[in-house]
Amino acid sequence: MTNNFAPHTLLLGAMLSLGACGQSADKSAADGAAATSPAPSADATAPAKGAEDTGLSAYVGKYPFDEVNGVAWSDHPAVKAGLAATVTDPKIRETIATRAGPSAPIEIYEGKVMAWACEAHNCGPHQWAVLVDPASGATDACYYDEAVDSGRAHWFLAAGKEEWRDGNCQLGQEES
């Protein structure tokens, strides 16, 4: 019997499977789809006011590993400076800045340019998001580690505060 699957069908199946890695069976379909193809937030297609100040608006719609003018999201000076100023835990800062894994397209969320990613094969339990104000560069970062607290995420805020919020770091993907 000959396999007549088109290459794009196989690629789509592989992407959906990757997005569901490490998630429980009851949430894998919903969360995996959200991780790989999030619904844009209401203002996801509109450039953020002042986005030209940091140049981060050029990343909207791209993945964090995609380069803009030869620079990936994590290597952009505004992102690096924001993480260095905001995330006080060096291990968490290094994980957010350097660990490659599945990610969602960068989007505008509540006026900030946001990138979301997770640990390969452990997406549900280990994920993070970085939100940068495109005008000022002020950065907020969310870090979720189910092994530390299964119901809350650790937030590092631009104002120098840290807090724990209910839920994980999947922002924007569930909104329509």
Automatic annotation (TrEMBL):
<protein>
    <recommendedName>
        <fullName>Inhibitor of vertebrate lysozyme (Ivy)</fullName>
    </recommendedName>
</protein>
<feature type="region of interest" description="Disordered">
    <location>
        <begin position="30"/>
        <end position="49"/>
    </location>
</feature>
